[in-house]
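Bug report (template v2)

What were you trying to do?
Predict the complex of my protein with NAP.

What happened?
Run completed; filing so the output is reviewed.

Input:
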Amino acid sequence: MTQLGSPTKPLTVAIVGSGPSAFYAVEALLQSGHAVEINMIERLPTPYGLVRNGVAPDHPKLKQPILVYDKIARSPSFNYFGNVCVGQDISVSQLSTLHHATIFACGAQTDRRLKVPGEDLPGSHSATEFVGWYNGHPDFRDRFFDLSQEVVAVVGQGNVAIDVVRILSKTADELKHTEIAAHALELLSNSKIREIHIIGRRGPAQAKFTPHELQELGALADCEPRIDPNDLDLNSESKIEIADKMSRNLSRNVEILSRFATSSGSSKGRRCYFHFLRSPKSILGRSRVEGIRLSKNQLRGQAFNQVVEETEDLIDLKCGLVFRAVGYRGVALDSVPFDEERGVFPNTEGRLTTKTGNDLHGLYATGWIKRGPTGIIGTNRGDSVDTVARLLADLPNLDDGEKRGVVGLVEHFSARKKHYISYLDWDKINRHEIQAGSLKNKPREKVTRISEMLEIATKSIDEN
Ligand code: NAP
């Protein structure tokens, strides 16, 4: 019998999503030695997920993996279907009918909630919205942020919070040659923000940002970081934590924060204040954000297992905007089981399961929808290699019937008059953006409306 994955019977795989974990899954499949056909399905016309829409525009090095993804996408075994929403334009069961296996790499598309009163007041925004907005994500293009406010609170002390703080702190000159979206640059250029408060529920030794990102806040043209030196008095358990060899990032964070605390003031126009051991209890205001109420916290427990204990001691901080950067969260999709608590698809080492742990034949997950929103871009490579290894180990048990793959997808979308974007169409959009950017000395000027993307894709190469 012809073996699935052999040249006469290629393994057809659908991959849902087009971010790092999706491309690393494609790479692992291409390198597997099996004959494969891979069809990537992406909700937006544009590929690359968070590398395009999440990585900050002033961090171009972090966008370099796109060069690798682009090379992968040129493989003759790869097809791209952008502007296709799974669950709307095609169902998961239809994908399964057309493929031997489906890998979900759809990331964590929304934000975790703070679950405090006032969270939805005008002026309280999730980092997801703000990051999407400055990166030109079409879903967030028309959001408005009232940057006429002078005082802002950013809740959370991870790298996303640092990105938000840095973009709010930078001058127009620092941003104008990055690939920041034009609408965002315009509003940020007129920002009246003077004070940014970055609020963490644990101590300086537990903050989740990485030293490189933290250090950047000390080198901004017109913003100075500030910390009350008393906030850097660590309890003995935290001292044990940062002395541990495995906690180099934590000890480096504390060193950098100590430098910020002792730096002699400057005449910079903006200040970024770090607050530790403070939890948001409510966002204050009648018809819009007027402040944030914080509890003072203590750390309790043994080193490496300290937990936050909120006290009755409350303080109010006046501010006109709040950004909640407390982590991302996956969203449910079509008929796929969803773990509401963790915001992931239930899985065992990448094999999707029902909520009760039964294997869902031929369905897999990788990246943030598999393990939750942690780690850097490169973390997804190992994750996708693992998931693909499970898929390949399952080959003898997969339904090895005839699968129509790309041909079936094209027929499906043509019958529904669905305008999907191929990788060659993306090439046109990409070229258009790079050309528009070159006129402004930017790496690219992003197209931020889906209608415009589709229009560019339909033009002939000469017209673009
Ligand atoms: P994160 O690293 O998990 O940080 C979330 C922050 O929110 C933590 O400080 C967390 O505090 C806090 N938090 C969570 N729930 C809270 C609550 N109810 N009240 C108050 N604070 C709360 O998440 P992230 O910043 O969204 O980043 C996601 C991933 O992307 C991370 O792995 C990050 O490193 C990565 N990333 C990397 C870069 C880069 O490399 N430049 C840039 C952006 C993002 P606790 O620690 O106490 O839970």
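What did the reviewer find?
Residues 112, 114, 155-161, 163, 200-202, 208, 213, 279-280, 325-328, 373-376 surround NAP (CB under 6 Å). The chain has two domains: 11-109+330-421, 111-328.
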